[in-house]
Amino acid sequence: MEIRHLKYISEIVRHNSFTKAAEALHITQPTISKMIKNLENELNIEVFARDGKQIKLTNAGEAILNHAGPILQLYDGLMTEINDLTYLNKGSIRMGLPPMAGSRFFPEVLKRFQEQYPGITIKMVEDGARKIEESIADGTLDVGVLLGPVDQAEFDTYPLIEDRLKVIMHPTHKLAQRPQVELTDLAEERFILFSRDFALHDRIISECRAIGYTPYIVYESSQWDFIGEMVSADLGIAMLPDIICRVLNPNKIKAVSLINPTIPWELVMAWRKEGYMSLATREWISFTKQIFNEQT
User: Fold this and answer.
1) 99 shares its domain with 224
2) Which of 39, 82, 119, 186 sits a CA distance of 20 to 30 A from 109?
């Protein structure tokens, strides 16, 4: 039994005529008669008791008709929802954003996307890039912003932002008047880092160890603005992307270029290579890629 069988039976009863039902369904009368006969043969029952020109349902036909209404309503609802999803009238996206990326780069993008696709819900999770990467990998998130480089065997990506880290310190710090500092100059400093869920946490430690020392970490935080406040209170030094340093109060914090080595800060949009991806998520990827391309 197929959905169309239920539609045919409902239309025949509604019109009390095979011919009129066929016209309403835009098929021929022999076709609708053949489909009903095939159904009767399949189920080994009679749906209609043929008595001259009268069309009457058998008991089995009555049972089918009683269930046909709710089934057809559910089917129509399903097809409407599928069409909405297909044409992006509705849907949802689970997206992960690191705090720095979310606050600086995405409010306007989100606004423009919602204006174009008001029926799509975006469920955002703010977390460190490392935690977001894990959530994309296990399917908890559909897409997210990560700190590059990422595993190209597991994720597809496209670049969003390319920047470098600067060292931020209190304006009275002994290194604050230099145009640039080397990583070796910071060996005796008190470091304020992002927490362990953030990829920058391990990145900075690895860079320091590569030149011969392990940084002395005094505080960790998940919020870049709080890190800035701790630096302005002269509790230690920290490293933030240049684009973030530009919004810090220069009267309270001095940002100095880092060299030997420079530490890149590259944000990428990432999603799993394998697995199902909704149309809404595909459109989000395409939409944001276009906007960030316009900005470069």
Assistant:
1) no
2) 82
